[in-house]
TrEMBL record:
Organism: Pseudoroseicyclus tamaricis
SUPFAM superfamilies (UniProt xref): P-loop containing nucleoside triphosphate hydrolases
Name of the protein this chain belongs to: Sulfotransferase family protein
Length: 264
C-alpha cells in the first residue's frame, strides 16, 4: 500500500490553519497565483477548501464530508497526495485501507482546557456567523447552540451540565480522535500510540505537523477560523471548572502531558 499523510483534525486545534496551508503549499502551476488572489475570507472558508482541495491542492481536506459516499471517498483517497478530516483515527484507518493507502498519522494537540473552552464557544460562534452558516448544521446542533446562548455562561454551574450531558462532544475529545481505540484506549498504551504519529503540533506551534505532511519547513501561518463571538472564557479558569475537568477530561490531560514530554 502506498503512503498517505493523514491529518487527524480535532475540532478547535488550529486545523483550519493547517488545511489552508496545505492547499497553498501543494497548489502549483496556474493554481498558485489563483489561490493567492483569493480574498482572505474565501481562503478561510471550509466549503471552498473542500471543493478546491482535490483539484488545486492535490489533497482531500474535510474527508468526512464524503463518508456517506464510500465509493467516491475511496476514489478520492486513492488519488490524494494528502488527506485530512474531523475523523477519528480508528475510523480513518479502514477507509485508507480500502483505498490501498497506508496512513502516516499527523495531528495537532491543544491545551485540554483551552480546547474544551474553544469548542464550547463554537456553538455560540455558529450563530454569530450568520443565518446561512447556522442553517448548515442539523437541528440537534442548532438547538444546542440556542440553549448555550441562553445560559449564564459566566457561571460554571450553568456550563458544566452542558459538558456533562454532551460529554462525547466535549470531553476527552483529543484522546477519542488520536488513540487507536478512542476513549477506550488504556492509559498505559497511550505513549506507544502517540509514538506512531509522524508529526504532532502542540498549541500554536503547528510547524511539526506541516513538516510531517509536506516534508517542507512551514512558512508564516496566518491564523484561520479564529473565534469572533463574545464569550468570556474566564469561567473555564474557575476552581469549580478545574475540578470538573480534572476528573472528567482526564484522558486529554494525560495525552497533553505525554505529548509535551515527547516534545521535550
Amino acid at each position: 500500500m502506498s503512503d498517505l499523510p493523514v491529518f487527524i483534525h480535532v475540532p478547535k486545534t488550529a486545523g483550519s490553519t493547517l488545511n489552508a496551508a496545505l492547499v497553498a503549499h501543494h497548489a502549483s502551476g496556474p493554481f498558485a497565483p489563483a489561490w493567492r488572489a483569493l480574498p482572505a475570507p474565501l481562503r478561510d472558508n471550509s466549503v471552498l477548501l473542500r471543493r478546491l482541495g482535490p483539484s488545486m491542492g492535490g489533497g482531500l481536506p474535510h474527508a468526512g464530508h464524503y463518508e456517506g459516499e464510500p465509493e467516491k471517498l475511496t476514489r478520492l483517497l486513492r488519488e490524494a497526495r494528502w488527506a485530512s478530516g474531523h475523523i477519528q483515527r480508528r475510523r480513518f484507518a479502514p477507509m485508507a485501507a480500502v483505498a490501498g493507502r497506508s496512513p502516516r498519522w499527523v495531528s495537532v494537540l491543544r491545551d485540554p482546557t483551552e480546547q474544551v473552552a474553544s469548542h464550547y464557544q463554537w456553538w455560540i460562534e455558529i450563530h454569530e456567523r450568520g443565518w446561512l452558516r447556522f442553517r448548515r448544521y442539523p437541528p440537534f446542533f442548532r438547538d444546542l447552540s440556542r440553549q448555550i446562548r441562553a445560559a449564564d455562561n459566566s457561571d460554571p454551574e450553568a456550563v458544566i451540565p452542558f459538558l456533562a450531558l454532551h460529554h462525547t462532544l466535549f470531553l476527552n475529545l483529543q484522546a477519542d480522535y488520536l488513540m487507536p481505540e478512542g476513549r477506550e484506549t488504556p492509559v498505559e498504551a497511550m505513549p506507544e500510540a502517540l509514538a506512531t504519529f509522524a508529526g504532532l503540533g502542540l498549541g500554536s506551534d503547528i510547524a511539526p505537523a506541516f513538516r510531517a505532511m509536506t516534508g517542507a519547513e512551514a512558512p508564516p501561518l496566518p491564523r484561520h477560523n479564529a473565534s469572533r463571538s463574545r464569550f468570556d472564557r474566564a469561567v473555564f479558569r474557575t476552581e469549580r471548572m478545574r475540578e470538573f475537568l480534572a476528573e472528567h477530561n482526564a484522558l486529554d490531560e494525560r495525552l497533553w502531558a505525554l505529548a509535551q514530554e515527547r516534545r521535550g
